[in-house]
Amino acid sequence: MSNAAKLRSLLASRKMIVAPGAIDCITGRAIARAGFSAVYMTGAGTSATLGYPDYGLITMTEMVGNAARIVNSIDIPLISDSDTGFGNELNVFRTVQEFERAGVAAIHIEDQVFPKKCGHLENKELVSREDFIAKIRAAAAARKSKDFTIIARTDSRAVVSLDEAVERANAALANGADVAFVEAPQTMAEIEAVPKRVKGPCLLNVVRGGKTPEIELETAERLGYAIAIVPGLLLGGILQICDRLLGDLKEGRFPPVTGSPAKTFARFGAAEWDERRTAFRDPIKAAAE
User: Molecular function (GO) terms listed (predicted)?
Assistant: First the structure.
């Protein structure tokens, strides 16, 4: 079963998919190892790995490259940020082709102008509703497999209103999108309203410290959300741990030993590669030795 088909099966189960955010293969494997059913590749995290803020500075090629590496390191579906589709309908068409070719199960495309900004920052700008829907139509037409999931993200709550966000989400669903992503509802009442007013599966972006109020995952599922992504969990934790460990080292303190190089490499398939060391040698020579 393809990754895209696996994700479709998860969506059909009616159990909310929780996809923590990965920034690379290390975090992608950690999420899969922890038993989650899907991984989300965060654009903000990908930007950070390349030394940039989430300001739409990363190219489509860089984003697809990171997604492809994560896909190759895990055995569960990857949902990926694809920003604005990196241009107009033509760019969106190619963007879908490249992400699908890389083995990604789903992408979300947003209605900000290019280059975009993180959805939980101020002063975002939108493309027209007509331009956004044209991109969604292009995305739906570009996929080779109908299992590949198109997620339509709208940032119009912050720029215009919740009503505009709901209208854009519904228009996207009517024109080929499979899931609606209303970014940054600002109150619990708005979080509750989105799955009621949007005519299709909804994604909730859980950004702690952002514009959306804190919400328990159990509550989000009860409200009817199909997917919850948690993009900043590992990135934020990594930065905190790095600062703490480096601060301790600066003061001459080492943390307790928690593993060894062998245990670390075991997380990344060392046993399989060890078997390959001798698996392809000439059996006669191997026996003689």
Answer: oxo-acid-lyase activity
- Other beta carbons less than 10 A from residue 288's beta carbon: 7
Rounded to 10 deg, the angle between the 60-73 and 89-101 helix axes is: 20
Q: What is the largest CA-CA distance in the chain?
A: 77
- By three-state DSSP, how is residue 58 classified? coil
Backbone angles phi, psi at 108, to 5 degrees: -115, 140
Give backbone dihedrals phi and psi of 163, rounded to 5 degrees, phi first.
-60, -45
- One-character DSSP codes across 224-253: T-SEEEETTHHHHHHHHHHHHHHHHHHTT-
Whole-angstrom distance, CA of residue 144 vs CA of residue 231: 27
Residues pairing with 41 in the sheet: 22, 80
Q: How confident is the model over 94-144, as pLDDT tens digits? A: 999 999 999 999 999 999 998 888 878 888 899 999 999 999 999 999 999
Record the pTM.
Answer: 0.93
Give 196's Cβ-side CA count (13 Å radius).
9
- Return d(Cα 97, Cα 104) in angstroms, integer: 10
Write out the DSSP string of 186-200. Answer: -SHHHHHHHHHHSSS
Contact predicate 115/60, CB 8 Å? no
pLDDT in tens, 15-56: 999 999 999 999 999 999 999 999 999 999 999 999 999 999
List, for residues 88-103, the tens digit of each pLDDT value: 999 999 999 999 999 9
- Catalytic positions are 40, 54, 81, 83, 108, 110, 118, 153, 183, 205
Query: What are the chain's domains?
Result: 3-240 (3.20.20.60)
DSSP string, 126-166: B--HHHHHHHHHHHHHH-SSTTSEEEEEE-HHHHT-HHHHH
